[in-house]
Amino acid sequence: MNKKIIVAICGASGSIYGIRLLKALLNKPVNIYLIISNAGLEILKYENGYSGKDFTSFLKDKGVVTHKDAGLNIYEQNDLFAPPASGSFRHDGMVIAPCSMKTLAAIASGMADNLIHRAADVSLKEKRPLILLPRETPLSIIHIKNMHKAAMSGATIMPPSPSFYFNPKTISDLVDTVIARVLDHLKIEQDLVKEWG
Ligand SMILES: Cc1cc2nc3c(=O)[nH]c(=O)nc-3n(C[C@H](O)[C@H](O)[C@H](O)COP(=O)(O)O)c2cc1C
User: What's the pLDDT at 90?
Assistant: First the structure.
């Protein structure tokens, strides 16, 4: 059976991480449940030239090739009736890429007032993988405490800090060093970055 992965894109800088993750996942027989926050949509427009219209065509323009058995379901942040809002929805992991400090704070405090917060809250209570790519610098003590709280509740905190030891040539190469680690944690085979050694 296809893996089911929830992907959320928040309004932090670095929505390219979300796009590259979708590119990697859609190339495989995976069912994706995508939630983009309102701020995330604005950053996608600002940083990545998204028109705000057909998201699938936008992904195609970004070079995304979809596997014949892949599925992409897109939900708005206010759609609290969507499958990821319920603990009865069995998925194989949720990734928030990038994750804003606001969404991190909501997750750390259990304040589930949109679909991203709720799906993350449900992932934690159901002990399903939750991977956060928090993007901010420098970090305040509040941010660090929120990461600590989320990690103590079971989330994986994976700051999008690209690695340079594979001599990346492009921004996409750099971003993929982060996405490769996300896929490793989701237990999804990846050929973006070779295993060291
Ligand atoms: C251009 C731009 C860049 C931003 N970058 C960040 C960022 O890197 N990290 C962050 O936590 N918030 C950032 N923000 C602020 C968030 O968009 C804002 O806190 C928003 O309410 C987050 O909402 P969301 O978590 O629902 O997506 C940025 C805002 C703008 C306009």
Answer: 96
For residue 42, being part of any structural domain is answered with yes
Average pLDDT over residues 144-152: 98
The domain containing residue 130 runs over which residues? 3-185
**In this predicted structure, what is the pLDDT of residue 147?**
98
If one residue of 102, 113, 118, 132 were mutated to test the ligand 1 pocket, choosing by the most ligand atoms within 8 A of its CB, it would be: 102
109 lines ligand 1 (CB under 6 A): no
Ligand 1 close to Cβ of residue 101 (< 6 A): yes
Q: Give me the pLDDT at residue 124, please.
A: 98
Asked whether residue 10 is assigned to any structural domain, the reply reads: yes
Other beta carbons within 10 angstroms of residue 182's beta carbon come to 26
Contact between 127 and 101 (Cβ < 8 Å): no
pTM for this predicted structure:
0.97
For residue 103, the ligand 1 atom closest to its alpha carbon is: 25
Eight-state DSSP code of residue 28? S
